[in-house]
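From the thread on structure requests for the teaching lab: each student submitted one protein with a one-line request. Submission from student K.M.:

"Model Polysaccharide biosynthesis/export family protein from Dyella koreensis, tokens only."
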Amino acid sequence: MNKRQALVIACAALALHACIWAPGQHLSSMDLTRQGSLDGARYQLVPITPKLLAMDKSTTTPATVPTELATFKPEPYRIGVGDSLYITVWEHPELTSPAGSQQQPSANGRLVRADGTLFYPYVGLLKAAGMTVEELRAELTRRLATYVEQPQVDMSVISYGNQRITLRGAFVKTDPLPVTVTPMSLEQAIGAAQVNADQADLSGLVLTRDGHDYHLDLEALSRAHGLGEIWLKAGDQIYLPYGDRKEVYVLGEVTRPAAVPFKTGDMMLSQALGRVGGLNEVTAKGNAVYVIRGVEDMEKTPATIYQLSAQSPTAFALASQFPVHPGDVVFVGPAGVTRWNRFLSQLLPLSGLISNAASAKSNLNN
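Reply posted by the TA:
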């Protein structure tokens, strides 16, 4: 067998192998039918069309506030342990400012003790915790009337104790927010904490109240102006997750294959492709853009493979309206010439080995 014959046989063998397995990742519409299996895993193939997008929109429900949160109205502030009250009894400075009128109001404040009581001259101990400011003012007026003729009492909270709203997760500030006499909405609390826009998952906010978790799409509710309708109360916990746990994986013939994190709940296919630099203009196959969904257990539950034919200008409009979900795999297949070039890149080193072997054998024979 001469060198030319050996090279031809090697090329034929490699070409036959390439029909079964192409170097690199490969998926084409020829491999897929409407329903079937691929490498033992079941799937169904769904083309991305205007009709499919219209059906998805008809079944999409707008973001709403849970009924329990929407119907909650803030109650008057109730005094808590650790609060400091400034109590004024008009025309009686000895009761109003026992530390002296030149002192700061905090020096003349009345502290609510750990047992919830408050001490006041002539009156003694009062059970203050749990009462509204108006209720405590009325009770103090009633008791002082025994010692002061027609007492005129005013009262305000000058510092707050341990009634808090806690924040965790992707906020710039996570210091607890005090509950005050002025009601606070969820929108105000988030504004005070400042969202870490680079890391936060805006669609996954969790408000925990009385042991129950309420999952809220912060970005969608902000568009609908629904955050101001949610009022907070003492003990509420707000958690904003980081976006690194929700990703879509963009692979294949794109500029920079990567895992793309979600920042909102409605990332579109065009956005996912844009964040990795788009399709590789040289190597990508236009009609081989796939979104593979439901890959957790493909042996038991068929996955859905959505196919976008990106060869026409209308495909960009479809891609801008097709939402991808966390865990989706976006795969862009290679063009035919790309697969052939990769085949040649593996064939040429082997042909060089064959040529060297043939030359060595010829030298030995000579």
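TA comment: The chain has three domains: 25-61+246-334, 67-74+165-244, 84-159. The domain at 84-159 is CATH 3.30.1950.10 (wza like fold).
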